[in-house]
Specification:
Structural class of chain B: alpha/beta
CATH superfamily of chain B: P-loop containing nucleotide triphosphate hydrolases
CATH class of chain B: Alpha Beta
Number of strands of chain A: 0
Structural class of chain A: mainly alpha
Helix content of chain B: 25-40%
Strand content of chain B: 25-35%
Distance between the termini of chain B: 45 Å
Largest interface: A-B, 24 and 32 residues
Radius of gyration of chain A: 18 Å
Number of helices of chain A: 10
Order of helices and strands of chain B: EEEHEEHEHHHEHEHEEH
Number of strands of chain B: 10
CATH architecture of chain B: 3-Layer(aba) Sandwich
Number of helices of chain B: 8
Number of domains of chain B: 1
Oligomer: heterodimer
Distance between the termini of chain A: 22 Å
Chain lengths: 229, 240
Amino acid sequence: MFTKFLALLKKDLLLEARSKTVLSSMLIYALLVLTIYGAALSQTADNFDILQVSSGLLWALIVFTSLIGLNKTFSHEGEAGALYALLLAPFEKSLVFLSKLCANFIFLVLLEVIVVPLFYFFFLQTSSLSVQSVLLILPLLLGNVGIAGVGTLLASITQRSKSGDILLAILLVPLIFPLLLACVSASAAVIIGSAELMEGFMRSCGIAFSYDAIMLAASYALYEFVLRP
Amino acid sequence: MTEFAVEAYSLTKKYGARSAVKDLDLVLEQGKKLAILGANGAGKSSLMRMLATLERPSSGSLSILGKDAYKESDLLLQDIAYVSHQSQLYLELSAQENLELFAKLYSIDNALERIDELLEKTQLSYRRHELIKHYSQGMKQRLAIAKAFLHKPKLLLLDEPYAGLDPQGVAVLNALIAELDEGVSIILISHSPEASYDFADELLMLQEGEKVLYESSSQLSKEEFLDRYKQAIFDESWAL
């Protein structure tokens, strides 16, 4: 079973390494959003404290950019009917979910490695980087797991629909709302850095972790029914 | 005791209000070859997708190789192969990578040897490391056929496998089919009545989802079959 999972994951990563369809479109979209943020925030009053909204802005960027990538989850399977070949192969179809989840998670991490430092550079220069800033990695990773997991499940459902792109957005945002709130709260605690907010950091991360555990287990269990005719 | 590759009773497939396959009974003994013919839209591919367990019938029962096609589909998949109009391959992978991926998914022993053998037989060895998006349509089809034969299926479902094949590809497919064990059943969709008659033990003709001919080729002369085929296609064309 593990060999089959590795074969599927290797295939997904190899396909992306060659086509670069997911990462390039996510990166271009993220840079455009950063540009729009720059234009929008350039007109704010002098006493406007960007730290108060930066966590929300960062997560809006991540969620919208992730939709671009998630919509392409099955693009290679659709090119020449390779999804049929996967459906006809004798293995647990939940492995497709796990491999696609891992691939989407890796794509999100790679994107954030570029985009989060840019976000800091453009909008958070007033905030001093400290050892505590490293803690931002935790809500980012927890958010990525949840978005990749729920997003992969929903992408599998919507890929057969002609309006799959918009359908995925309509379904994903409400479903990840609790995760989004927890991650925004935990990220704000790190970015603003007040002792009061830091008390809520672990609680928010705990909520995000619980969300991920429940949603991933449910998605894994449901996947066989989602993919099979 | 006779074993059956396919047993379908009152098989119906509806897409909305339209019936693609209507109340079809079909029984094929293991090791026999069946050719399905009919005009475009007659329901051939819908029937084939149901036989491949890729679509559920709207009603009726379907048993493949003695197993319920939907309740026991996991047990069946190891024994079925389906070749369709699409190559069902990853275009950004090479022939070797595609076959290695599916060899792992089918848990094939001595996979590399089997892959070498099939690439040799399909005359694709020399381009095995090239991405298949650079292949011609005929080469993709030959590779799709190699993938279908990879796990030595007991039931081979071929939906117009000759479409897009050049004479070399046709010869490759015919040679692979000729090498199959006697126990392997083949269901072929074709638009060539003469080739179908020569190939198959059983002939099924569909018209608007309904069976208009279902006979053993031994009980029907070639001339009679061709007449009935032309009549069915001609009638349907006029009806349209």
